[in-house]
Amino acid sequence: MHEVVLTAAGPTPSWNLIDDVAQLFHYQFMVHAFEAGTVVAIAAGAIGYFVVLRSSSFAAHALSHIGFAGAAGAVVLGLSPVIGLLAFTVGAGTAIGALGNRLRGRDVTIGIVLAWTLGLGVLFISLYRGYANEAYAILFGLILGISQGEVLVTVIAGVITIAAIIAVYRPLLFSSVDEELARARGVPVTALSIAFMAILAVAVTEAVQVVGVLLIFALIVTPAAIAVRFTSRPSSALAAGISLSLVFTWLGLSIGYFSPHPVSFFITSIAFATYLAVRLFEPLIARLH
Amino acid sequence: MSAAYGGRSVWSGATFEVPHGSFTAILGPNGSGKTTLIRLILGQLGPAAGRIEVFGRSPRRGDPTIGYVPQRASFDPELSIRGRDFVGLGIDGHRWGIRIRGLQAAATATQSAIEAVDGTAYADRSLGRLSGGEQQRLLLAEALVGEPRLLLMDEPLSYLDVRNQRAIVELIAKIARERRLTVLLIAHDVNPLLPHLDHVLYVAAGKVVMGTPADVITTERLTEIYSTPVEVIKDSRGRLFVVGLEEETAHPHA
């Protein structure tokens, strides 16, 4: 359905904001994009806080890339890419979680597996003689092409992600801050590490639909990384991360609608520009305090 | 009681009883099994032989009667959590879900634990950005917030300068007196603790010995216990130095 947007003369924004919003939601595909984007942004922003707190951003990045092989493999088999994506990210996430958070050399192990699975992905893409669009969608996301059924799946996955984060919130926070202390208080640290990576895998799978495996950092890590620069209160940092993730997604979708360029480009650029601005003005903000 | 780690005996034949409300230092060279003793008390490790009881029952994981301060150099400066939220984890950080009920009670308990360690001035800053002494005080507050009866600390003084060491020891002793806490504390250097110490548990060369500092930390006693020439040296300010046991541990008897 994205083809429509790319080839049409395209809508143009006016100075009337209400008019623009009405235009945005005129087409069903934009409504779907906003629905899915909103759910994904909330889930990604929430889990992203723990990714930053646990210094696991490389693991998050790796998960999405490992998922690429799964998605490409599923396409070759004639299945929905989401199934392959979910299978590979949850599998890899569980394995990474079992390795433990503080294990020396963990990132090297992840990187080695990551390189191999990317190679697998390339093979699967070459085996699939169909539409290159499938590969493009997995790599860079195609939120504007999302169907009503996919929106429903995304909403369900999003609700599960949020519910799971709420369920493990306190012990996950505890073990992310001080594993040794949490273990002494009876927190099942290793099981939580695995649960965290499994939740992250589901969130990554959702977010891939919006920004694709290559650009996932912008939705999961960047909002939380900005949030923790402003507040060290967990509840505030979570709220700020989710809000930023939502703003990036909504703005990216809106600008993307009025432009011939991909939505994921706008989402990642807005995220990057915000991060840059925060880092540049940080010394100024600190002086004001 | 005996302890083993990974199939290798750490120490054996240990018999000791720590009286309620006493202040005991666990001393001994690196790798002698001091942290193993802590793991036994926390229920993370079972004794290889014999029996251990904490307040009349065998140790279990997550025992709320124990306030624990693990050994750590310092928190990662990038770790973004407010000191106050970290202390609050000591109340219900091990429970599932989010804190819904008892918000006010939790806030009050957290504040009083922070006040007990004189941490009000920096409790609202990010833990990773605090000094070593400030972090150590908030770790102590985190251990105290659950109102434990036993305070178990693994090298709380090791990464502090002399002035901070003395301040933390004074603080621990004062809080322990007020709250009638039993304190078990691993230390590298007995000297900052000496004014407050009731007993020492000496862990070295595969043995554990308990007694008062004046009894145990003497040339004669340590030499006898470890059947190796140990020398206790006292400097002009009354500080004690134990010489000779480090090598014993580096080359343990088979």
**Mean pLDDT value of chain B:** 89
Globular, elongated, flat, extended or rod-shaped: what is the shape of chain B?
Answer: globular
Mean pLDDT of chain A: 88
Distance between the termini of chain A: 49 Å
The radius of gyration of chain A is 19 Å
Main sheet specs of chain A: none
Number of strands of chain A: 0
Largest interface: A-B, 28 and 31 residues
Q: Residue ranges of chain A: pLDDT <50 for 5 or more in a row? A: 1-8
Could you give the distance between the termini of chain B?
A: 19 Å
Q: Report the sheet-strand fraction of chain A.
A: under 5%
Share of helix of chain A, binned: over 70%
Account of the 3D structure:
- The complex is a heterodimer of chains A (289) and B (254).
- Chain A has 289 residues and is mostly helical.
- In chain A, α3 crosses α11 and α7 packs across α10.
- Chain A is globular, with a radius of gyration of 19 Å.
- The N and C termini of chain A lie far apart (49 Å).
- The radius of gyration of chain B is 19 Å and the shape is globular.
- Chain B is 32% helix and 18% strand.
- The C terminus of chain B is likely disordered.
- In chain B, α2 runs parallel beside α4, α3 crosses α4 and α4 runs parallel beside α5.
- With 254 residues, chain B is α/β, with parallel strands linked by helices.
- At the A-B interface, α8 and α9 of A face α2 of B.
Task: Give the SSE layout.
The complex is a heterodimer of chains A (289) and B (254).
Chain A: H1 2-7, H2 17-24, H3 28-53, H4 57-76, H5 81-99, H6 106-127, H7 132-140, H8 148-177, H9 179-184, H10 189-211, H11 217-230, H12 234-257, H13 263-288
Helix pairs in contact in A: 3-8, 3-10, 3-11, 3-12, 4-5, 4-6, 4-7, 4-10, 5-10, 7-10, 8-10, 11-12, 11-13, 12-13
Chain B: E1 3-5, E2 8-11, E3 23-27, H1 34-42, E4 66-69, H2 83-92, H3 103-116, H4 132-144, E5 150-154, H5 162-179, E6 182-186, E7 199-204, E8 207-211, H6 213-216, H7 219-226, E9 231-234, E10 240-243, H8 245-250
Parallel strand pairs in B: 3-6, 3-7, 4-5, 5-6
Antiparallel strand pairs in B: 1-2, 7-8, 9-10
Helix pairs in contact in B: 2-3, 2-4, 3-4, 4-5
